[in-house]
Fold these 4 entries.
Entry 1:
Amino acid sequence: PALRRLSHYLLADYQKGTRPVRDWRTTTNVAIDLMVYAILSVDEKNQVLTTYIWYRQHWTDEFLRWDPARFDNLTQISLPAESIWVPDILINEFVDVGRSPRVPYVYISHHGEVQNLKPIQVMTACSLDIYNFPFDVQNCSLTFTSWLHHIHDINLSLWRQPELVKFDRSVFMNQGEWELLYVLSHFQEFSVKSSDSYAEMKFYVVIRRRPLFYTVSLLLPSIFLMVMDIVGFYLPPNSGERVSFKITLLLGYSVFLIIVSDTLPATAVGTPLIGVYFVVCMALLVISLTETIVIVCLVHKQDLQPHVPDWVKHLLLERATVLLCIRDRKKFSQSRTQSSDTSRQVENNDSTAKLNHYGGEDPRECEAAGGARPAPPAFAGPAEGPPPMDGVLREVASIRRLLEKRDEFRDVAREWLHVGYVLDVLLFRAYLVAVLAYSVTLGTLWSVWRDA
C-alpha cells in the first residue's frame, strides 16, 4: 500500500513534458557515466564500431520529492521511465539502432534524485586507422549531448572521477579479439553558427587488437615460404630443378594470398602495411624466379657460342670472386689448363702415328731391334699406302677434329658455367641482404607500434 500511495502521490499532477525545475532559470545538471562491457565488432570497410556499454544518468527532479515518514519510511521507488521527464541526451556518432534491451523503469530517491541505468548496444561511426594492422590501436569517441537544450537548460558532468572512468575494466569481457586499454573523458562546449552553446561529454574508447591469431595465420606462413625461397638458391645453378622449385613457390604464395584476402581489412582510404608486405614478398619471389631463369640460360649456353668476354672475366672471375670470397676459382682454371694440355697431347700422338704410318715402321720398334735398320732398296718408288688405309686415316682425322671441337665447346661451356656460378652467388647475396633489410625494417616498425 505504501508504494501505491507514493506512486499515486508523485504522478497525480506530474507534467512530464516540462523540465522539472520550479524556477526556469535553474539549470538541470545531468551526471553521466559509462562502462564498456564488450567490443562486439569493428567494421573497417564501413568505418563502424559496435560496442556494448553500461550507461548511467543522474539528475534531480524537483517535483519528485516526498517525506519518507508519510510513506512507511520509503526512501526509493522505481517508476516507469515513460511517466516522468527524461533528458534528451543522445550520442552524436550513432549510425544505427542496436538491439539494446529495454529497461522500462528508473530509480527515484526521496530527495528527487533520478537514476536511469540501462545497457546500450552502440553502433557508431569511427575513423579506423588500419595501416598498422594487426598491431593497430583504435581510438573511437562517444559524444553525449542534449539534442535540443542548450547549456543554460541542461548541463553535463561526470558521475565519477575521470581517473576512475579511465581504468575501469571491471565489467569488460576481455576474451575477444580486442582489448580495452582505457576510456578517456572530456567535457567541452560548442556552438553552431554563433547560437547558444551546448554542453557535450566525450568518451574516447581506446582499444587494441590482439595480433597472435594474425601472426600465426598470416605472417608465419609467408615467412616460411620466403625462407624456402632463400634455401632454393642452394640448388645447383646448372640444374633445371631450381626453376620448377621457384615456380612452385610462386604458385603456392599466390594461393596463400587468395586464401587470406578475406582476412585482411579493406577500406577505401588506405591499405594496411601487411598488404604492402605481401605484395613486396610476391615481388621478391618474382625477382628470385627471374634471377634463376637468367642464371639457367647463362649456364646452358648452346654450341658455337663465343668465349666469355675479357671484361666479364675481369669483373666476375677476378674481382667478384675476391669480393665474394669464392675459393674454387683456381680449380676451374686448372681444369681448363688440363683440358688444353690433354688436347695437345692427343694431337701430338696423332701426328706421330701418322708419320710412323707413312714411314712404314715405329721408331720404338727400331730401338728394340738394336738400331739395325736395313737400308731401303735403291730402286724403290715413292711410299704409297694401300687405298683402304687412306680412308681409315681420313676417318681418324675427322674424329680427331670432332673431338677437338667438342673439347673447345666444353671449355666454352665451362667458362660460362663459372660465370653463371659467380653471378648466382653475387645475386643471391644481394637478394639475401634485401630480404633481411626488409624483414628487420618491418619487424622494428611493428615492434614500435606494438609497444607504443
Entry 2:
Amino acid sequence: MEKKDFEAWLDNISITFLSLTDLQKNETLDYLISLSGAVQLRHLSNNLEILLKRDFLKLLPLELSFYLLKWLDPQTLLTCCLVSKQWNKVISACTEVWQTACKNLGWQIDDSVQDPLHWKKVYLKAILRMKQLKDHEAFETSSLIGHSARVYALYYKDGLLCTGSDDLSAKLWDVSTGQCIYGIQTHTCAAVKFDEQKLVTGSFDNTVACWEWSSGAKTQHFRGHTGAVFSVDYNDELDILVSGSADFTVKVWALSTGTCLNTLTGHTEWVTKVVLQKCKVKSLMHSPGDYILLSADKYEIKIWPIGREINCKCLKTLSVSEDRSISLQPRLHFDGKYIVCSSALGLYQWDFASYNILRVIKPPDFSNVSLLGFGEIFALLFDNRYLYIMDLRTEKLISRWPLPEYRKSKRGSSFLAGEMSWLNGLNGQNDMGLVFATSMPDHSIHLVLWKEHG
C-alpha cells in the first residue's frame, strides 16, 4: 500500500475505532494481536512499558508528593534522588522528611531552620557520624602528662579540664591542645571545681580551700569536717559552698567568708557526691527556680531545699533497696527535672516532681556498668573494659570504645564525662571535644575525644 493510501486508511480506521465502546475496542485489539507476528508483538511490548509509566512526583501537587515521601525510609529516599533531576529536586525540598530522619537518628532539630537542603545535608552528616559510632570509629585518644603522683580529682567545663593530685598541685588543661594553662600548689585534692577566677578543692586533709588561678594564692580555707572531703559544689549567686565528707555530713558554707552556716546530718556512710542545682519542675515541696541540694552516700540520695533557708530539713531520701543490700554508684545525675543513679540492679531514673521511679534500665551484665552521663536521647556508661553509648529510646547499646587498664586502688579511680550536650541529641556541632577522662597508674590523664567529621 502506498504511503498516501496508508495514511488515508489509518485516518479512516482511527475515526471508526474512537467511535467504538470500550468492549468493542478491547475486542478489536485482541483480534489485531492475534494477527500479529513476533516483530509486532515485540514492538507492542516495548511501547506498552513506556505508555504505562507515570511520573507521579511530576504530576502530583507538591503537597501530595511530600505526603507520600514521608512514608519512605531515608535510604530509599536517597535512592529515589538518583531517578531524575526532577525527583531529586522534589525529594530534597521536603523539609519535614529530612527533619524526621534526623530526629530518628537522635539529632537535635531547630524547627526555625526551614531550608530543606540544609536538613538533607545534616542527615547525610548524621548518617556518617552514626556509622562511625556503630563501627566503633567515632573517637580517638590522647594523654595529659605533668603530674608526679596519683591524680584523684577531675572536673571539666567549657573545653578546660582541672586535675587535682597527690603531688599537692592542681592543673588546668586546654583539652584541645593538651597544654597546661595554670598549675598551682594546693593540698591533696579529693574533689575540684573551678570557674574563670577561682578553684575550689576538697581534700583528704578534711578541709576545703578556695584558690586564685592567676596568683595561686589561697583566698579561703574551710575547716570543720572530721573526714576527707570527697565532693564540693558552689554557687556565687547564693554565696554558698557545699561539701560532702567521709564524716557522714554535708556542710553548708558562706563562700566569701568561709563561715560554716549549717551541718546537714542523716547520712550513715561517706558522702561521696553533692550537687547544687536549680529545680525546673513544680511540686508540693518546691517550685521552678528553687535551689536544691542533693547528697549521696553508698546507699541513699538525700534531697535538701537549700535555696529557701540555710537551716533546711531533708525533703526526701531515695534508695534502690530498703535493706541496704544494693549499693549506689558514686556518680549522680541531676538536671533539675530528673535524678539518675546506677547500681548493681540497673540504671534508676526518678521524677523530681513526684520522687517516683520512672524507669529502671537493665542492659546486659549491668552489674559492672556505671553511669557517666544521662540525657534526653543518649546515656554514657562504662565498665572495666569499655565506654558505652546507649540510645535511651530503645535502651540498646549502640556503640562502645575500649578503655585502657586504668588505675585501680582502695580509694578507686577518677572518671569523668566531658561535653554533655550531645546526650540530649547530636547536632553536628556538639559532637566534638572531650568525651571521657580517667586517671592512669603512671599519673597521666587518659582522654577519649570525638574525631572530627570526615
Entry 3:
Amino acid sequence: LYRARFMEEQTQGLRNPGEMENGTEPCGEECASEAQETTVTEGAAKIAFPSANEVFYNPVQEFNRDLTCAVITEFARVQLAAKGIQIKVPGEKDVQKVVVDLSEQEEENAELKEGANLAPGDQPRTAAVGEICEEGLRVLEGLAASGLRSIRFAREVPGLQSVVANDASARAVDLIRRNVQLNGVAHLVHPRQADARMLMYQHQKASERFDVIDLDPYGSPAPFLDAAVQAVSEGGLLCVTCTDMAVLAGNSGETCYSKYGAMALKSRACHEMALRIVLHSLDLRANCYQRFVVPLLSVSADFYVRVFVRVFTGQAK
C-alpha cells in the first residue's frame, strides 16, 4: 500500500512538469515521442529512427554492415565481369588494383576474361554506385528494420539492379520508406512488408530468385534458412548472421541440436565450432534440394558469427 501511494505521488508530481515543458495536454506524451527522432550517419547512409527505439538499431554491428558491403562489392565484380561489365568503386584506383576471385573456378574465369578482352566492343560497359544496372544483382534484405543496410547497399555497392528491403512490421516499413526518400535511393531500394519466409518461398523459380540474400535476425536464423537456400540464384551469395552465441558455443546442446542439427560442446574452440555448425546447417538444408554451399568467408566477432556462402546445384557434389 505504501509503495502504491509513493508511485502515485511520483507520477502525479512528474506529470505536470512534462505537460508544461511540451506545451501539451495528456496526449503530449505521444506527440513528444513522435517528434523525438535520432539521425545516425553510417557509411554513406543517413538514417532517422525514433528515439524510443521502436525499430531496432545496433551500432555494434557496424563492422558487420561494412564487411557485407565489401563482400557484395567483390561478388558484383566477379559476377558482372562474366557479362563484360566493370564496376566503378568510389576511391578505388585503377593502378595496382587487386581482384579477388570468389568463384574458385580460375580456368573458366580466365577464359571469360580473355573473351571479354577480345570482344570487338568499343569500350567496356561500366556500373557505378547509385545507378541501376539492368544485368546487375538483385538483393534481398529479409529483415530490414530501419532499412540502414539496404540503403548502404544502394549508396556504396555498384552493379545493383534492385534491393528489396523487407520487414514484417508496418512501422518498420514506414520508416524504411522515409529513410529511402531521405537518401534519394527510391529508384534502387523497394520497401516490402511481408513475412521473410513467405517472400523467399514465393521466389523459388529460377527466373525470380535473388542473387544476394542477407539475413540478420534477432537471434537464430534457423527458421529462415530453408527458404533462403531455395530463393538464392545459382551461384548466388547468401549472408547469414547468428547472434545466439550462447547456444552455438555449448551452453545448451539440446537447443543447438534442435535448431542447427548439431550438438555444440564447450571447448576452447567454441567460436570455430559455432561457425562450422552454422555452415553444416546451411549445407544440410541445401542438400534437401540437391544444392550445396561453398563457404567464402566465416567470421566470429563480438557476440555473433557471420558467414558468407555461395549456393550451387548439383546432386553429385
Entry 4:
Amino acid sequence: IPEIQFFGASTLHIKICRHWGDLPAEQHEDLRIQLLSHILHFSSGPRMVLTRLCVALASMALNLIPQAWSEPVADMVRAFQPQKPDSEDNPGAKPDQDPHAHCLALLELLTVLPEEFQSSRLAQARRAQLREALAGEWAVVCGMLRQLLQSQDSSVQVKEKVLRCLSSWVGLNVPLGETQELVQDCFTALSDPELFDTAVETIVTAISQPDCQRFINVLLSLMPLVLGLHDQLKTAAQDGDMETTHVNETTSSLTLTFWYTLQVYKPVYFQLVDVLLLKSQYPSQEEYACWSSDDKEQFRIYRVDISDTLMYVYEMLGAELLSNLYDRLGRLLMDPQESAAWQVMALTSFPKHSVGKCHFIHCMQVR
C-alpha cells in the first residue's frame, strides 16, 4: 500500500536525520546499499515514496560527507548506470529494466541533496565543510546535466528534471562562471512550450544569486541570448499571452532591483531613467478618479520603489544624472505644449540621501 510505504520511508528519513548516532558505523555501508536498491525499485513509483527515499539517502550522505563518503554524487551516478547482475560496484543489482525511470530517479536524488542541505540544522563550521564538499562534486553534476539537456533522446520530463536540478544546485552558491554553459543551454529550452516556465525560473534563479555581480563578463555573454528573445516576446504580446510576456505593471516592478546589479553601460541607465520617469507619471485626472483606493495605494508604493531605484542609479551616474535631469526640466519649461501637462512638469524633493554626496532631487511626477 503506497501510504504505508510512504510512512516507512518518512520514518527512515527521520531516524537518519535525527538519530544518526544510534546507528553503528559498521552498518552504514549496508544501509547505503539498501537505500540505493529501494530507490531503484521505486523509480517507477509511487512518486511520493521515491521522493522520501531520496531525501533519506541525501540525509545519510550529509552525515557521512566527506570523511566516510568522499564522492557521494559520483557514486550515486555510477549506481544508476546499467549494471550486470551482482556486479562488483552494485552487488545484488538486477538488469536495468527501465533506464528512463532510473534517470528520473537519479535526477530526483541529485535535486533533493542540496535541498536537504539547505533545510538541515547544522553548525556553521559543519555547514561550511559540507558546502565545500558538495561544490567539489559540481563538475560531475554539471557534465551529466548538460549531456541530458542537449541529448535529443531525452524526454521533456527528463529535461524538466534537469532544469529543476540545476536550480537546486545553484542555491549552493555555485559560481556563475561554473554554470555559464549550462545556463546558456537553458535558453535553448525556452523554445519548447512545455519547458518554458521551468527554464525561465531556472535562468532567473541562476543569475539572481548574491555573487553573480562578480561575473560581469558572464552576464554580458548572456545578454545576446536575452536580446534574442525579442521576437518570442513580441509574438507572445501580440497573442495576448500574459503568462509568457508579463508586460503588466503588477510585475514590472520585479526588475527594479536588477538594474542596481547590472552596472555595465551608462547609456542603458540613462534610458532606464527615461522609462522610470514615464512609469512614475500620473494618469489623466479622469482615469485616476476611476481607480480604487487599493489601486492608488499600489501606485504610491510603486513610485516609492522607483524613487529608490533612481537613487541607486544616481550612485553610479552622479552629477551626470543631475545634469541630464536639469536639461530635461529646462526643455519642458521652454515647450508650451509640455508645460500644459502637470503630470509631466511636477517636481518633488524626496527625502535627501547624502553620504558625502550632494543631495539628489528626483525629477519625478507627483500629484
